[in-house]
Amino acid sequence: xxxxxxxxxxxxxxxxxxxxxxxxxxxxxxxxxxxxxxxxxxxxxxxxxxxxxxxxxxxxxxxxxxxxxxxxxxxxxxxxxxxxxxxxxxxxxxxxxxxxxxxxxxxxxxxxxxxxxxxxxxxxxxxxxxxxxxxxxxxxxxxxxxxxxxxxxxxxxxxxxxxxxxxxxxxxxxxxxxxxxxxxxxxxxxxxxxxxxxxxxxxxxxxxxxxxxxxxxxxxxxxxxxxxxxxxxxxxxxxxxxxxxxxxxxxxxxxxx
Length: 257
Ligand code: CAA
Known about the structure:
- The two termini are 30 Å apart.
- By secondary structure, this protein is an alpha/beta fold.
- It contains 12 helices and 10 strands.
- Strand 1 and strand 2 (14-19) form a beta hairpin.
- The protein has a 6-stranded mixed sheet with strand order 1-2-3-5-7-10, with helices on both faces. A 4-stranded mixed sheet has the order 4-6-8-9.
- The protein folds into 2 domains: 6-197, 2-enoyl-CoA Hydratase, Chain A, domain 1 (Alpha-Beta Complex), CATH 3.90.226; 200-248, Lyase 2-enoyl-coa Hydratase, Chain  A, domain 2 (Orthogonal Bundle).
- Helix 5 (108-115) packs across helix 6, helix 6 (142-150) crosses helix 7 and helix 10 (201-213) packs antiparallel against helix 11.
- The chain has helices at 30-45, 67-70, 75-80, 87-91, 108-115, 142-150, 152-161, 167-172, 185-198, 201-213, 219-232, 237-247; strands at residues 6-11, 14-19, 51-55, 60-62, 97-101, 104-106, 118-122, 126-128, 164-166, 178-180.
- It binds acetoacetyl-coenzyme A (CAA).
- The site of acetoacetyl-coenzyme A has 21 residues, from helix 2, strand 6 and helix 5.
């Protein structure tokens, strides 16, 4: 499939999607949305792929939703097309997706990174929700997801002042899982994704589902959900294989069954 705004590659069991609109700092327009979704859905359906990495350039993961595309919309346009709703399909991808973020992750770029399962940041990464400087507010989940990641005080600070957070602050605040030198970003993210892809895919997908459920439910219901999923894993051949391999002191050979 030919793409205009992204580069799609496969590295072993890992699907790699690189945002590629260098002249617009990877601003997220409707073509980017359609192409990212298409590429991710192809990886999702491919049984040989166990995890995905989403990245941008050294200068920008993505500098936000495309301001030039949005600029002339009316309220009715935005309302009828339910502007940005398409990104919810990205957040519903069931295989793991790691965001490898270098440079600017602003507005929709920060929001897209937060829709991934975790963020590995380069030391030059800058996160922010500067929509307030444009006379608007976050619209792709920033007010909700950022608050869950970093707490109310920092989320308010970022959404109301539009200030950016550097990689060190993002790591301290729990927004990113690790920070690496920029030259090692892609390698580190691909290594993490390859490690995940070696594990039992159903176990990985259920673990992702369980962690995500913690955002949506009470602790008691979440614990019950986790326990039921855990019980169901005893129907997997991979559970037998994983535990047998441990006891027999060998490495496991998971078959995603
Ligand atoms: N939309 C459209 N085009 C963008 C863009 C965006 N979000 N961000 C950058 N660009 C374009 C610029 O217009 C410029 O294009 P031209 O050369 O044709 O003028 C090109 O990318 C390079 O950008 P700059 O010259 O501005 O680069 P810089 O290095 O001087 O500055 C920057 C970098 C600080 C990131 C600056 O580009 C910037 O502030 N960008 C906008 C950031 C922003 O406000 N993001 C939020 C968007 S709204 C949103 O995302 C809503 C939501 O909740 C989903």
